[in-house]
Amino acid sequence: MSEFVTAFGPASIGNVGVGFDVLGVALEGVGDRVSARTVASEGISIAEVRGLDGELHPYLSNDAAHNTASIAAQALWDTVDEPGGVEIKLLKGVPLQSGMGSSAASAVAAVVAVNALLKKPLEIAQLLPFALEGEKYASGGLHVDNVAPSLLGGLVLCPPLLLPTTVNLPAPKGVSAVLLHPELRIDTAAARRKLARHYSLEQWVGQQGYLAGFVSACASSDIDLIRQTLKDIVIEPQRSGAVPCFDDVKAAALRSGALGCSLSGSGPSIFALVEERDARNIASAMEQACRGTGIECQSWVSPMTARGAFVETD
Question: What is the domain count for the chain?
């Protein structure tokens, strides 16, 4: 057996409001850790899954066939010529069903840790297809907008039809992300099934215009244009009703100066893009609004240039 290697996979904001299924941004300061070591037995096995409290996780499976981390690790391991197998440990730092890319963070951390054990490690970007295998198990489809930013960091344009190509977009200068997580849970796969299947030409053109404008605004660090374009007129109206505190939190964020505010992924987490100087005050306002509805919460402030997954060193 080799020594354990530990990798960190950050949480992420999927969709970034304006870019359903094609845009994501990594978050700093919150994520999952996977430790991996080679063993004599074939295949991938899970030694333990723990939460941040140090206790065994009450919900996640130790069955390697039913865990996003081990499924992603197995996908990578099946492609390499290495003897034996790998044992992994998972430390969950991202809440489940939180809209923060929980399954993506596990899958990404797993492939980065296993990759570090290989005689000929792959480039980080080459690990994307393997991490997506774990995400597919969790979400029931090929959704890249959490996996890509968690793996690569920063703001990422990642339309599934362009895979394996992704594009790291310029992050607007002076802009941070605030992420608020209410103590609620939403099943992503179930939330997707509830979405309408048909949209008007007006909706399609409108959202397409907002996305194009937002990408341009980020590239030029045009704060006013970000404020004009960070809008979701298609998905947010269908999903926000499932998050009881959403309207109050969004109103508080915008009232306090946020450039825009929407759901992170399918929710319940809510994000805002803000000017750096206002970040802490807006995070506090969002927390107060959430607690005012009787729902406990926590928040993080992150640069839009947050680092992607990496191997931790002592």
Answer: 2
Boundaries of domain holding 189: 175-303
113 & 196 share domain: no
- Would residue 312 count as lying in a domain? no
Residue 40 counted as domain residue: yes
Q: Which residue has the tokens 């007129």?
A: 233
User: Token digits for 140?
Assistant: 């029931």
E strands present in the chain = 5-14, 23-39, 43-51, 85-92, 155-157, 167-169, 175-182, 260-263, 270-275, 297-303, 310-311
The torsion defined by the Cα of 225, 227, 233 and 235, in degrees rounded to 10, comes to: 110
CA distances from 32 to 28, 203, 228, 305 (A): 12, 36, 34, 18
Tens of pLDDT, residues 101-145: 999 999 999 999 999 999 999 999 999 999 999 988 877 777 899
Q: How many CB atoms lie within 10 A of CB 83?
A: 7
pLDDT surpasses 90 at 187? no
